[in-house]
Design a protein that fits this description.
Elements: H1 2-6, H2 10-18, H3 34-41, H4 44-47, H5 51-58, H6 93-101, H7 107-111, H8 120-127, H9 130-138, H10 153-159
Helix pairs in contact: 3-5, 8-9, 8-10
């Protein structure tokens, strides 16, 4: 299931779920679900719409599932820094909006910090994801949280601009 999510193979995900009856919230050794993996593999320029994630969410994949570092699938949207060509940013706004709307992510999930004290807004700021950062702020994310090394999302946005 995780490999199908990584390769964004929609038909394989459907077959594994419907025919093989594999749980969409199954976890690998890193405590990561297929929704975490599909969020990581999502590419706004290639995928255009988050159809795979919509399928997962419609079939009860848990958007609030925490991995071993206390990160929800939404955090994985911003892990692609080294895959992005120089001068480009990673701003997966369509999938973030899907997770906020269809995944029912609320104030608690927006305030969720990982083991290093980083929130979704910290990650969006580090990725230079301006649209995602504004979306998170408009959804109620706080600008003030300080991570374990003393950075706020605002200071990270300035450092990564």
């Amino acid at each position: 299931m995780h490999y199908a999510a990584l390769s964004r193979n929609f038909s394989m995900i459907q077959m594994l779920h419907q025919v093989a009856k594999i749980d969409l919230n199954c976890r690998n050794k890193f405590d990561v679900t297929p929704l975490h993996v599909s969020a990581y593999a999502f590419n706004e320029k290639k995928d255009f719409t988050p159809a795979l994630e919509r399928y997962l969410l419609a079939n009860k994949a848990d958007p609030k599932a925490l991995d071993s570092d206390l990160r929800t699938p939404a955090f994985y949207l911003f892990f692609k820094g080294k895959q992005i060509e120089a001068g480009q940013t990673n701003d997966p706004a369509s999938l973030l909006m899907t997770l906020l709307r269809d995944g029912s992510l609320g104030h608690y999930e927006l305030a969720q910090a990982d083991r290093m004290g980083n929130t979704l807004l910290h990650f969006a700021a580090m990725a230079g994801a301006n649209i995602c950062s504004l979306t998170l702020l408009n959804s109620g994310a706080a600008l003030e949280p300080v991570n374990l090394i003393g950075n706020t999302p605002y200071s990270l946005a300035l450092a990564h601009s």
